[in-house]
């Protein structure tokens, strides 16, 4: 039996449960896991016999906890090519600089975040002190690198050039498989 307890921010517990418990039920049905949600303490306990179902349920709960909508988080159950990666900014950035760094990642009117998502075919959520990325493994790695470049102070234009190069590499690699 696989068991884990995950802390979920108070503002995300309702999203995880969903209207009339539909999101919680859907995760349980698709993974074969049991979710016990304590909204009082913001803790989700996942219990599961099946290791794969357990890992997928954990990823979906983590994705919702880190700010993704259930629609995007549930893609992790439907497409085995997708992964979730969470970057903890607090381990790299002081509390004083956190807002500025998150602003750099998001960009003016959300433009930088949207460019990362569009160019690398990923979904990004910036919630609290975390940046969460959902996509295919290589795309997520490239998006993480782009985010790290922004954290390290690279100019937006430099990061865009990097992403254009990565996108070409990923596209040529996918064509090699054909």
Instruction: Give Rg in angstroms.
Output: 17 Å
Instruction: Kindly report the CATH topology of the largest domain.
Output: Ribosomal Protein S8, Chain: A, domain 1
Q: Helix coverage percent of residues?
A: 40-55%
CATH class categorisation of the largest domain: Alpha Beta
Structural class: alpha+beta
Could you explain the architecture of this structure?
It is a single chain. The model has no long low-confidence stretch (mean pLDDT 93). This protein has 2 domains: 2-77, K Homology domain, type 1 (Ribosomal Protein S8, Chain: A, domain 1); 82-176, Ribosomal Protein S8, Chain: A, domain 1, CATH 3.30.1370.10. The strands form 2 sheets. It has a 3-stranded antiparallel sheet with strand order 1-3-2, covered by helices on one side. It has a 3-stranded antiparallel sheet with strand order 4-6-5, with helices on both faces. 33% of the residues are buried. Strand 2 and strand 3 (43-48) form a beta hairpin. It is α+β, with helices and mostly antiparallel strands. The protein has 9 helices and 6 strands.
Summarize the structure.
By secondary structure, this protein is an alpha+beta fold.
Q: Top keywords for this entry?
A:
single chain; 178 residues; alpha+beta; Ribosomal Protein S8, Chain: A, domain 1; 2 domains; 3-stranded antiparallel beta sheet; 9 helices; globular
């Amino acid at each position: 039996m696989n068991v884990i307890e995950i802390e979920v921010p108070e503002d995300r517990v309702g999203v995880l449960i969903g209207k009339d418990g539909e999101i919680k039920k859907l995760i349980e049905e698709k993974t074969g896991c049991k979710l016990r949600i304590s909204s009082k303490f913001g803790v989700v306990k996942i219990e599961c016999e099946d290791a794969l179902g357990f890992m997928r349920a954990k990823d979906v709960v983590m994705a919702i906890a880190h700010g993704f909508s259930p629609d995007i988080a549930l893609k992790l159950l439907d497409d085995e090519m997708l992964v979730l990666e969470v970057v903890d900014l607090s381990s790299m950035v002081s509390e004083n600089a956190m807002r500025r760094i998150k602003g750099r990642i998001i960009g003016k009117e959300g433009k930088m975040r949207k460019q990362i998502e569009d160019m690398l075919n990923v979904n990004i959520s910036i919630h609290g002190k975390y940046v969460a990325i959902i996509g295919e493994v290589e795309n997520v790695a490239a998006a993480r690198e782009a985010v790290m470049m922004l954290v390290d102070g690279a100019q937006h234009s430099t990061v865009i050039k990097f992403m254009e190069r990565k996108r070409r590499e990923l596209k040529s690699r996918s064509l090699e498989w054909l």
